[in-house]
Amino acid sequence: MKVDNDTLLFLCLSGKTQTQIAKELGMTKTQVCRRMKTDTFQELLSTYRKKVLDGVLTELTANAHKSVETLVELLDDSNSFARLQSACKILALAQEYGIQKDLLQDIEEWKQQQKDTT
What we know:
mainly alpha, 5 helices
C-alpha cells in the first residue's frame, strides 16, 4: 500500500505513536521512521508548522490591540486584577509566538545554507 506524505502527516499530527501509525498503515515502525526523516516529509511538516504559527500569531496580534486597550482601561480600575492578568497573558503569548516564528525562519534559513554548501 502506497502511503502519501499528507496521510502520514495527518496521522503524526493526530498524536499517534510511530508504532500505532505503522500498524494502521500496514508498515513497520522502521519504515514509518525512515519516511518521517526524509527531506520531503520534514519540509511538509515545517510548512504545516509555519502555517499554524502564522495563524496563531495573526489571531494573537489582532487580540493584542484589545489587550492594550484593556490595560489602559485598567490603569484606573484597581478591582480588575483578573482582567489585568488575562491581558498580560495575551501580550506575553503574542510575543512568545512571534519569537517562535522567527526561530523557525532562522532554522529554515540555516537548513538552506547547509544545503547550499553541500
